[in-house]
Design brief:
Belongs to the transferase hexapeptide repeat family. This protein is α/β, with parallel strands linked by helices and 224 residues long. It has two domains: 99 residues, no CATH class; 121 residues, Hexapeptide repeat proteins (UDP N-Acetylglucosamine Acyltransferase, domain 1), CATH 2.160.10. It is built from four helices and 18 strands. The N and C termini lie far apart (49 Å).
Length: 224
């Protein structure tokens, strides 16, 4: 695994300081004057925590708008590495607790993934973890099962590569399945429970895949 450079950590810490400053400032200026009753201190802490995450979403999206994640192999000491590693720090230190929790309801998780840049069609929900929301594109009426994991990064020793994951409409990803970087899944396909879809796999429309590594179990029915 490639080490995160001190300069990249410094950029993240500056962004984190900005987030905290905005959150504390908003809490002090907007909420501190409200009549909050006997639980004033607890309420202000909870509001400040909420503000931290709201500003974190905003600052994260602005950062990625300025330095978008680059698909392909990430060269060391490049601006693409800066974007990738700051993205990793955001995930590890701020968003991991939201993405991997089992306490938030699935509809709220959908809103979080959208806020983090995932492209989700109408009526698409994930009870699993989308580890790289900006590089995850999912169509409509698709369900990601409980504890499934979808990620769009490849780490092989010191090599780092980013590859978007594309999933079509009305797809079912079973519980505890793993979908790796670069995978493309067609409409109406099914990935069975516990399957591991290795990187760059292409699953055709209507196909059923399962196993470790995942293999085609059933082909798409012939067109009428």
């Amino acid at each position: 695994m490639r080490a995160i450079k001190p300069g990249q950590i410094a950029v993240f810490l500056c962004l984190l300081a900005l987030i905290l400053l905005l959150a504390i400032g908003t809490t002090a200026l907007v909420f501190d004057r409200l009549p909050l009753g006997d639980f004033r201190g607890v309420t202000l802490v909870l509001l400040a925590a909420l503000m931290v995450y709201l500003y974190a979403f905003l600052v994260y999206r602005v950062f990625l708008a300025l330095l978008p994640l680059h698909e392909g192999e990430v060269a060391e000491h490049s601006r693409h590495e800066l974007a990738a590693n700051v993205n990793i720090l955001f995930y590890l230190l701020l968003f991991n607790s939201l993405i991997r929790t089992h306490f938030l309801p699935v509809p709220l998780q959908r809103l979080i993934y959208l806020a983090l840049g995932a492209r989700l069609g109408a009526n698409t929900y994930s009870a699993g973890a989308l580890l790289d929301p900006p590089l995850t594109r999912i169509g409509s009426n698709t369900i990601i099962g409980h504890d499934a994991v979808i990620f769009a990064h490849v780490i092989e020793g010191a090599r780092l590569e980013l590859k978007a994951v594309t999933i079509g409409n009305t797809v079912t990803i079973g519980a505890k399945a793993v979908v790796m970087a670069g995978v493309q899944i067609g409409d109406n396909a099914i990935v069975s429970t516990g399957a591991v879809v290795t990187k760059d796999t292409r699953i055709g429309a209507g196909e059923i895949w399962g196993g470790i590594p995942a293999r085609r179990i059933k082909s798409a029915p012939p067109a009428p």
